[in-house]
Amino acid sequence: MIQVPGLLLSLVFASIYAIAFYLVLGRRPRDMLFFWLAALVGFASGHLVGELWGFIPWTLGQVHIIEASVLAIVFLLLARWLGQEKKADDKTTKRDRPANS
To answer: What is the pTM of this model?
Structure first.
């Protein structure tokens, strides 16, 4: 069970990743919330993976910082990919279309 300092450290790191990602790739204000949630879920998942499997023995206090950071970035990239708006593939305009007779 993670204690309060570890939880706060995790929230700070996930928030830093989300803010940095938003500043680089964000377009709309709602992207910030989307990226923050993705970073939190990714960071928590990475910490859980590190806790259960113990791939890398280095921790910062109770937090498996390497595994958590890697999965937070993966989740942020996935959120960016899922959050992209579809561009119009049909570039024809009304002027270019044949008129119905």
So the answer is: 0.77
